[in-house]
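Subject: SnoaL-like domain-containing protein structure
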Amino acid sequence: MNQNLLDTLQDRMDLEQLAIEYANAIDQRSWDRLDQVFVADAIIDYTATGGIKGSYAEIKEWLPRTLKFFKSYMHLMGNFQFVIEGDTATGQVSCFNPMLAPSLLGGTNTVMFGIWYHDTYIRTPEGWRIKTRRQQHSYSFNVPLWMRLATKLVAPIERFKQARKRK
């Protein structure tokens, strides 16, 4: 095998491991492990599933406050697709993410999400890190009413916050 092919295979394995480390850090609620996943100035957009868009610092602070409402969750990552160009890369990763949420207004507690992550990556001296992450909603099943309403409210609230920042 030539060295270029070996380097490409190593980069791909490293990027897959980065996606898995993200999933494990979230699922184990090990928030500081995310420091090894994202660069400090990363921008993350979870608005497709009712979350927020913000800097890595804002997201890291927001995750434990938000995910405490879910009794359990699991990220199963797959369908890795990467385009590697030197020390940068782009990628798409699928995520099967069943989440057990309380049903505040009656009904079942189960909620399930399928999402795609669209990422940009950068090679740092410590290895590959995520520079930007954007969720794309794939499917939902049995989403409680309170979550459906919250998802519809996030975009207008975010636009309002951005408008206030510009003033």
